[in-house]
UniProtKB/TrEMBL annotation:
The keyword NADP applies. GO terms for molecular function: oxidoreductase activity. Keywords: NADP, Oxidoreductase. This is NAD(P)-binding protein. It comes from the Eukaryota. It comes from Periconia macrospinosa. Residues 3-282 form the NmrA-like domain. Transmembrane segments: none annotated. PANTHER family: ISOFLAVONE REDUCTASE FAMILY PROTEIN (AFU_ORTHOLOGUE AFUA_2G05290) (PTHR47706:SF2), NMRA-LIKE FAMILY PROTEIN (PTHR47706). The keyword Protease does not apply.
């Protein structure tokens, strides 16, 4: 039995999707949640019957005690107070002290090349660098950065079954496609073409993570990309129009305009964050908006939902 500690696992989106997927392997995988001592355990987590270990992320001793018997640590921490990187470093150091074998930092975004280009994501390299150093010092230790692109669930805002469509996603920012309002604002590449981007449904993210936990020793690598679908952004418009039976009002945004707006933007979040993501996608680069399907190849038993399947499921 492999015990997997999900740090931040009380989140209704990623945390719940990973724990739900781990439950599909009751004879092989056991999920436990690391939760802040000051946080209340949500009702859905209590009903799931998963063990919750209360911790102090500022204390390596507290974390070391909680990680006894743990094989793999998966981080989905959301620290709005700016302690995300320090908490993960403490968690990594505690894990190494407790004898963990695998560690996955909080990523679950676009490719690793994207982080240096997005202000809010730039500090993430601190944790990745620490993982690289740990691997050099501790033979047999493995780490992986799970990259997913954009959550497909952003297409779910305003759907008839919005709760099911969002699958725990808690972010009200409508980006590129306003499916309810039937409007879209698509950034263009420098050459004036429509870029491709990767998108993955939250539930499928959990399935890929669980499958990755079952991979044999030595399989984990830094770039653990997973792909629901990589698709041209205007193809998403065509799918929405087909399913909803009406036309979207589409605006195409020149690359230079997107860049100029980001340079002038002063509100770091959410405005500049989403603006920089738009600019990143417009670069149409593998390792940024386009994710390598590493886990799709390693875990072919996971069959993720396509954009059309998602839109038909929640907007038909």
């Amino acid at each position: 039995m492999i015990t997997i500690a999900v740090a931040g696992g009380s989140s209704a989106g990623l945390g719940r999707s990973i724990l739900t997927a781990l439950k599909q392997y009751p004879d092989q995988l056991k999920g436990v949640v690391l939760g802040r001592a000051s946080s209340k355990t949500p009702q859905w987590l209590e009903k799931m019957g998963v063990e919750v270990r209360k911790v102090d992320y500022s204390s390596v001793d507290s974390l070391t005690a909680a990680l006894q018997g743990v094989h793999t640590v998966i981080c989905v921490l959301l620290a709005k107070d700016g302690t995300g990187e320090s908490s993960q470093i403490n968690l990594l150091n505690a894990g190494l002290r407790a004898g963990i074998s695998r560690f996955a930092p909080t990523e679950f975004g676009c490719g690793l090349l994207a982080n240096p280009r997005v202000d809010i994501l730039r500090p993430r390299h601190i944790v990745t660098d620490a993982c690289r150093e740990a691997q050099q010092k501790h033979p047999g230790f493995e780490y992986a950065c799970f990259n997913v692109g954009l959550f497909m669930n952003y297409l779910g805002y305003g759907a008839p079954d919005e709760e099911g469509a969002l699958n725990g996603l808690n972010d009200t920012w409508v980006w590129v496609w306003d499916v309810k309002g039937m409007k879209a604002a698509i950034p263009l590449t420098k050459e004036g073409k429509v870029p491709r981007m990767t998108t993955t449904e939250i539930g499928d993210v959990g399935k890929f993570v669980a499958a990755a936990c079952l991979l044999p020793k030595g399989s984990w690598k830094e770039d653990f990309g997973m792909v629901g679908e990589t698709i041209h952004m205007d193809e998403v418009v065509k799918i929405i129009e087909s399913v909803r039976g009406k036309k979207m009002e589409v605006t195409f945004r020149p690359y230079d305009q997107v860049v100029e707006e980001n340079q002038k933007e002063e509100i770091v979040y959410p405005n500049k964050f989403w603006g920089q993501l738009e600019e990143m996608v417009a670069r149409n680069a593998v390792g940024e908006g386009i994710v390598n399907p590493v886990l799709n190849e390693l875990c072919p038993e996971v069959r993720p939902m396509s954009v059309e399947q998602y839109v038909r499921k929640f907007w038909s």
